[in-house]
Amino acid sequence: MGVVLQYGKTKGQDNLLELLYKMQCEEHRPPTVALEAGPSKMSILMSPGAQMALASFALMCVNATDGIPTIFSIPTFATMSAPLVDRVHRGLCVDVDGEGTIPESLRNVLSKWTPDDAKNPKSGIPRILWLNPSCSNPAGVTTSAQRRKEIYSIAHEYNLLIVEDDPYYYLQENQPRIPSYLSLDVDGRVLRFDSFSKIVGPGLRCAFVTGPEAIVKKMEYAYMQSSQHVCGLSQIIIYKLLKKWGSTGFEAHIQRVVAFNRERRHCALAMADKWLKGLAEWSVPTGGMYVYLKVYGTGLKSEELNERLMEAHKVAVVPASGFYPRGAKLTDVAVLRISTSMADAEVMEKVMKGLSQVIQEAKTAYSKQKTDRADIVSSENCM
Ligand SMILES: Cc1ncc(COP(=O)(O)O)c(C=O)c1O
């Protein structure tokens, strides 16, 4: 106890780092483990949440240059498209469909440059590819194995660093899980972010970064000047849990978490079928904890729809417009993220029923508004 209450090593507690290193090797078989000691060799750093690690990494890039052109799949995790990254990194957007990030869309974004431009510091070519490949937040989409290979090969061609923001990796229902970018990383170009938030508890603020030693070391220096290290108690809790479980127990725990999320998500999808048919479109994810709704033809913004839901029905969803970096246009569509893990069947029914009412009312008002406007225009034309 005395040890965990003392200041500790910034990188993390040795015994936990050792376990995590083993876990990454077993789960991802990263080719970078076999590299000679050097800048690309795989290294691990504990972080007080993946969010903190992502934000520190973003700030680090800003310090290094004056904002690095970064490509995001959209919609993207809000924190990353929020003012910090949005303002300082010139965000470029790649489209996502039901199979995840679309490689052709990435090629399209990069088509303004040639791979040789990567050698020119002034070319303005993107340097970072920010991906959230499994059960993404907010779209709930998992990028297929084939696409991951294609995307990795494009990143290799254009010398992009891949930020693999993957806290929902273990929430995939695909068995075996779709291999991560880390597992494809022969070059040392993947910086991977794992978190215990979605598989143990977010209050522990315990996550870890895996990637090339040179970058991980810089992040460690940044933490020395800020958080110092992850709370010692959180680290020891995670260590004891992992130690007690072993890899078989860990997998059994993961399958319980997956089953819990599957039940909640299926319940949300059934309620969407019951209440929102014809009123909204939604994703049908194969894992994770989000269902993503698109609502057309209400004339309302995502935030306005949510406000009406809260006022009339005392429940809330997440207006997902913030998941689009500046520059990405949302025209006549409200986007809403429903977190399925937090609501039991009763609450979920309240949410979906409430949504159906506010959407119906808004659509009726909007089409009346349009008809009234058309009547005014046609009566003005008659005069
Ligand atoms: C895509 C994504 N990355 C990172 C995080 C942050 O996770 P943590 O709780 O470890 O900070 C979240 C949290 O919801 C997320 O959805």
Automatic annotation (TrEMBL):
Gene3D superfamilies assigned to the protein according to its UniProt record, in alphabetical order: Type I PLP-dependent aspartate aminotransferase-like (Major domain)
Keywords assigned: Aminotransferase, Pyridoxal phosphate, Transferase
Cofactor section: pyridoxal 5'-phosphate
GO biological process: alpha-amino acid metabolic process
SUPFAM superfamilies for the chain: PLP-dependent transferases
Record has Nucleotide-binding as a keyword: no
GO MF entry, a single one: transaminase activity
Record bears the keyword Transferase: yes
Parts of the chain that traverse the membrane: none
InterPro entries noted in UniProt: Aminotransferase_I/II_large (IPR004839), Class-I_PLP-dep_aminotransf (IPR050859), PyrdxlP-dep_Trfase (IPR015424), PyrdxlP-dep_Trfase_major (IPR015421)
Domain Aminotransferase class I/classII large: 5-351
Listed name of the protein: Kynurenine/alpha-aminoadipate aminotransferase, mitochondrial-like
Species this protein is from: Acanthaster planci
Lineage, broadest ranks: Eukaryota, Metazoa, Echinodermata, Eleutherozoa, Asterozoa
